Structures are given as C-alpha cells and as structure tokens.
Amino acid sequence: MTTIDRTETPATVFRTTGLQTQHDVEQFLYAEAELLDRRRFQEWIDLFTEDVHYWLPTRTTRTNRERHHEIAGEDESALIDDDKYFLTGRVRRYSSGISWSEEPPSRTRRLITNIRVAPGTESGELDVVSNFYVYRSRLERHQEWFIGERFDTLRPAGPDTGYPYRIASRKIVLEQTTLLAPSISIFL
Questions:
Q1: CATH 3.10.450.50 applies to domain 52-188
Q2: Mean of the per-residue pLDDT values for the chain?
Q3: How would DSSP label each residue in 19-78?
Q4: Would the N or C end of the chain have less CB density within 10 A of its end CB?
C-alpha cells in the first residue's frame, strides 16, 4: 500500500497515469460514494475483494520531531480493522433495522476529491490516494463530519462485474485525533 511521505518535494509527489485510467478510477470512487449515500450497502460490499483489509488507524498529535509516529501502524491501535467477513457483518447489521446507532438511519453526503493514481506493485493494481469529506446528519439535531485521506489499492475486476475495479485494501486517515461523534456507524 502506498503511503505518501509528507516530507517529499512536489516533484516527487507528482504522479502520472493515463487519462482514461484516471477517469475510470474517479468514476469508480464517485459511484462508490453514491452507493453509500443511498444506503445500497449490499451493492457496496461487492466492490471489495475477498482478501480486503479495511482499516482506520488511530491518530495522535505529535511534535514535528515525532510526526512520523502520528498515525498508528498496522500492528498498533485502530478504530476499525476489518476484513471482508467483518465488513459484511457491519453491512448486515446496519441494514437490519436493529442497529441502535443507525435506527433511524443517518443521512450522509460524501465528497471525494484530489484523486491521485499510480501503478501499484502487483500486476494491474493501482495505488490511489484521495481526500474525502463525509457529512452525517442523524435524528433532528445530530451532525458530524469526517475529513481525511484514503489510501486504496484497486485491482482490475472481471468484465462481468459491472465495475472496472475491486478494492483490495483501504486505509482511512482522519484529520481529527479526537472524534466527537458518538459512533462511527457509517462507512468512510
């Protein structure tokens, strides 16, 4: 999974890909956001590979000297650390009507931006970095927002799947270190 080193110069961060690939990836991510905003979770879960790793590591405030320790590593604490089995369970729970944190369901709007695409290490895989803003409104007065960056690995999907890619891994890095939301009962 690609991780951008915040100390890189603009010339080394600039990554190019073909226009068609860039367009296809953007449309894929926008379609994914629409599935989530419309609560079409069963279709959304099909966008993931069987060996997916979907995780949201914790973040702490650090000094400049320790900034490289700001985001927890894979062997450290995480707010979400799921594979396909657990993601499917969350989809089932949120869709059931018995999940107290999603009954009545949240209203969400996702904005995906600054999509950067580069060839991955495996044949045909793509490393994709994007920024996101997710607004959630629930009940009459509950409002939260989640802002951050996502690091995805996309694999080409078969022609009969309806989508050009499957998500093989997703690392979600929130800008917030302390979440004021009562729960993370939505997908980011």
A1: yes
A2: 88
A3: HHHHHHHHHHHHHHHHHHHTT-HHHHHTTEEEEEEEEEE-B----GGGGGGSB--TTS-E
A4: N
